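[#protein-structures] MJ: dropping CsbD family protein here for a structure pass
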Amino acid sequence: MGLGDKISNKTEDLGGKAKEAAGSATGDRDLEAEDKGDQTSAAFKDGAEKVKDAASNIKDKLTGN
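AK: finished. structure tokens for CsbD family protein:
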């Protein structure tokens, strides 16, 4: 996983958490729901990057690189 991807995913996750806190504090259910989407998206992207890294590592081991 590239450093840029890691930073982007973490930023999206933190933004979602901030929205959750703001939505909870103000009682804004739409904002709270939006935050869950941001956090889920960031987690999915992070998981996909980990799968790509694992596949790359397996390929390297099989090819001797």
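MJ: nice. Helices lie at 3-26, 29-63.
AK: one more thing. The radius of gyration is 16 Å.
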